[in-house]
Amino acid sequence: MNECIFCKIVQGEIPSKKIYEDDKVIAFHDINPEAPVHVLIIPKQHIESANELNEENSYLVAHIFMVIKKLAKEHGIDKEGYRIVNNCGEYGGQTVPHLHFHLFGGKSFGWPPL
Ligand code: AMP
Ligand code: ZN
């Protein structure tokens, strides 16, 4: 049985504030937002992290970035800019082991993000 919480969100077994869905991905509001706009974009397919990407599944990342661009426009943050984050693995700060990209916007972000 798949215990992955993001797979459960994809299946509708856990509620989420879903804002986008197609055959490949879904996007929903982060439960603990760190910025005025904080959306997670995930593949429906369970891929553990960016470290599990390969020639067969990496097309999903290009698609996710196209969805991010569309969502940024819809949220009115495309002109001022935004941040896309992927945390990979333990030292990368990944807490949910299902590939996801954070879309942060609505404020100015510092650098470096340490
Ligand atoms: P990361 O640290 O990159 O793995 O990010 C995981 C993100 O998932 C965090 O920002 C959490 O707030 C978010 N999160 C965890 N559970 C849920 C959930 N059930 N619905 C929405 N966001 C969630
Ligand atoms: Zn999963």
UniProtKB/TrEMBL annotation:
The active site is at H100. A motif (Histidine triad motif) lies at residues 98-102. One of its GO terms (molecular function) is catalytic activity. Residues 5-114 form the HIT domain. SUPFAM superfamilies: HIT-like. InterPro entries: Histidine_triad_CS, Histidine_triad_HIT, HIT-like, HIT-like_sf. Gene3D superfamilies: HIT-like. CDD domains: PKCI_related. This is Histidine triad (HIT) family protein. It comes from Clostridium amylolyticum.
